[in-house]
């Protein structure tokens, strides 16, 4: 068969965001759009001839077509071998695991994560490097520059690979191996967690509901939780990956997973509830009548890491994104290990993990993970909680309340103003930035501002600097108001307001979060002119 060089012209706007290039499916379906971006990836990679790549996605609409294009382009660029998940399926954490285990050169993840799927939904593509993690900014920026300069792409004209049949086939000189998407990942989980203890827990009648939200975590949860751990069939709901996620918005938070939250509040609720997102890297943990905030979950995992065999020796450090609550910082202090504060985006954890400076990482956006791979990992977090419940014999709510009693409670909430006019959102941020210098030392309501700045991160490993990573207004009691524009949306701009208040006194730990944070929300609005700029009366989503 023949390799063709096809003339093309650049498309505007192919700059990867917080997590890869995400656009509406229709945009990706334009002739040459995907090809240009993939060509830009290959133009950025040097020395990839003869190397192994891993390719897979969350099964959303356009996943299979995109994989066929990528395979034919990889063959045209002299890639030696591609490992592709059967059915085109690989969760983001499983891809990271496969890249590391097989010593691959890199991987291509096809996902728009938690963004809706289907023909009218979103699609996404992201390049991961040989450590199994998202490419750092210098690489994503180089890819972007290459999209602006691309004049032609190379592609083989060979036929489609049967993605459903396991085994090895060839395109040109390149080997394509269709692999079991779950096996390597499941084996890694078995090494990290006490599967015997969790099996005993399920055997004793412990009931759980895992909501796969019609996305890619289903096959992983079914194999591991129902299969290897012996949970009854039906423990995993919405467990088959569908091209449109069955109409679900596969973003595990109390708003989108309302069905699970209602189930967990019912009188006959299971003991434990969990959900994961489109590509299975996010997680939500729910107990009977209590949803655990991701920030608390990170802190609780850190405080109890030693219960899991993979972390028996203890943790060396924690990293959290700047808007994530400081609950983990308190645990780090108690353990005598460092806690790093990074910009939003899992890619910023990569250097710290590679350098062995941290074991655990987490973000407020329902992402938690560890140094076992280089992506956040939804099923991993769920298994950690199962291990913790099995080891402690305590229900989720008791685990959380005991944690607050020991470390204090960081009340936390995120208010999202979605699909706001992009100019209005940037102008709000510009006005806010201009005010920051005047805020320090100023009393506002019952708070006094300690400092206010626009977060800058200097990576302690490679010294790279990321600026404009979010405005934070920090009060003298440690309470915080943080403003950021989302880097993952595909419609207008999304303003995120993060609110945090620390309360040490356990007699004050039962206040509803929105009530506890109401004054900070009002201050945020008055300082930033949120309602005036966005033209909205309130947030579209509160989590
Ligand atoms: C993705 C990234 C995360 C990030 C989240 C929210 O899931 O992998 O690292 O925290 O998006 O990003 P955003 O820019 O929308 O707040
Ligand atoms: Zn995701």
Automatic annotation (TrEMBL):
Domain Alpha-D-phosphohexomutase alpha/beta/alpha residue range list: 14-151, 184-286, 295-407
GO CC terms of this entry: cytosol
Entry EC number(s): 5.4.2.2
GO BP annotation list: carbohydrate metabolic process
Catalytic reactions of this protein: alpha-D-glucose 1-phosphate = alpha-D-glucose 6-phosphate
Known cofactor(s): Mg(2+)
Gene3D superfamilies assigned to the protein according to its UniProt record, in alphabetical order: Alpha-D-Glucose-1,6-Bisphosphate, subunit A, domain 3, Alpha-D-phosphohexomutase, C-terminal domain
Pfam families associated with the record: PGM1_C_vert_fung, PGM_PMM_I, PGM_PMM_II, PGM_PMM_III
Enzyme class, UniProt record, top EC level: isomerase
Keywords: Isomerase, Magnesium, Metal-binding, Phosphoprotein
Record-linked SUPFAM superfamilies: Phosphoglucomutase, C-terminal domain, Phosphoglucomutase, first 3 domains
Molecular function GO labels: magnesium ion binding; phosphoglucomutase activity
Family designation: Belongs to the phosphohexose mutase family.
Protein name: phosphoglucomutase (alpha-D-glucose-1,6-bisphosphate-dependent)
